[in-house]
Design brief:
This protein is α+β, with helices and mostly antiparallel strands and 83 residues long. The chain has one domain: 2-Layer Sandwich (Enolase-like, domain 1). The protein has three helices and three strands; from the N terminus they run E-E-E-H-H-H. Strands 1-2-3 form a three-stranded antiparallel sheet. The radius of gyration is 11 Å and the shape is globular. The relative contact order is 0.24. The mean pLDDT is 97.
Length: 83
């Protein structure tokens, strides 16, 4: 199932991803630090949704209370509720 989530408090504006059989695929960020966010997408490819959430939740960017990885964790939690 394909998902699109608007981010809050980050340079990126949206996150697109797919969840299939409890695994994360095709993560793409709109905006933000392109190279770093492509790297995150590649690192979580095929990983269990709960594992991604566990690893990324709570990461902060500088003085911000959130980050792009944290926003991905938030989006995945929301997506799990919709499945």
């Amino acid at each position: 199932m394909q998902f699109e989530c608007k981010t809050k408090g980050t340079c990126s504006q949206r996150i697109y991803f797919r969840i299939e059989d409890g695994k994360v695929y095709d993560v793409e960020f709109l905006g933000g630090c392109n190279g770093n966010l492509q790297g995150i997408g590649k690192l979580v490819e095929g990983m269990d949704v709960d594992e991604v959430i566990s690893r990324l939740e709570g990461i902060r960017c500088g003085m911000k209370p959130t980050s792009c990885p944290d926003q991905l964790a938030t989006a995945l939690k929301k997506a799990k509720e919709d499945i």
